[in-house]
Amino acid sequence: SLSWRLTSDPEQRMHWNLRLGRDFRLPGLNDLFWQPGGKRDLQPEVAYGQEAAWHYRTAGWGQWRLVAFNRWVRNWIQWSQLRSGIFAVDNITRVWSRGLQLHWQQQRGAWHLGAKAQYVRATYQVAIENPRISPGEQLWYTPSWQASARLGWQHRGWRFRYQHQYTGATAGISTQLSAYQLATIQVDYHSDWEKLPWRIHLALHNCWNATYQIIEFRPIPGRQLQVGVKLQLTHKLLPTARPRHKSINHHATN
Known about the structure:
- This protein has one helix spanning 29-33; strands at 2-7, 14-25, 45-57, 63-81, 87-108, 111-124, 145-155, 158-167, 170-171, 176-177, 180-191, 198-205, 224-231.
- By secondary structure, the chain is mainly β.
- The protein has a domain at 64-231.
- It has an eleven-stranded antiparallel sheet with strand order 1-2-3-4-5-6-7-8-11-12-13, with no helix packed on it.
- Strand 11 (180-191) and strand 12 (198-205) form a beta hairpin.
């Protein structure tokens, strides 16, 4: 990728930055060689993007960041189902993606708060016959709205975090996928005992047991508990050798 960035003084309470870029994405191995459906003569994606960001630090209401972006992509790589029923990959001529992002974060003592909201309009710019897609339709599996919020607390070796995420409805290849919400709770404890540092980690994913699908007809598992323990062992295989001092006396004879 190639990019050019212009930024105002980041030490100021309010500052901004602009970015212009050109990105390349090569086809993956599955895109090229998967059988059936792969295509060895796929062209790499080429994207031209612009981004403008505005940052503002308030006295008592945290930090805010507003980002506007625009991106044109040529040779978009997409898998789709053919009339024969198999999935195949091809280059879509043009795709246009644009949108807004709003970020906020705040810290009060041991507490950390944060939130993010995003609107994306990503559309096909060329009509496709199979599967039938009209110009201006939203890209498959690309929700227009997404939002998340997090709450964290940290004290000494303890750390707690709750994160809630909303994903809006989106279109799939064969059906509409409903919006869903996910939540994750994480608890960590870290011991900095010099002889044996250790850490224990607990995470409850999808803690409200939501039913959702990212791709149609492929349900995702429900509530999941993850537990981990990490020990750091340090052992000296060889004792430290003591330096040996050898005295040499020089005698001069006249």
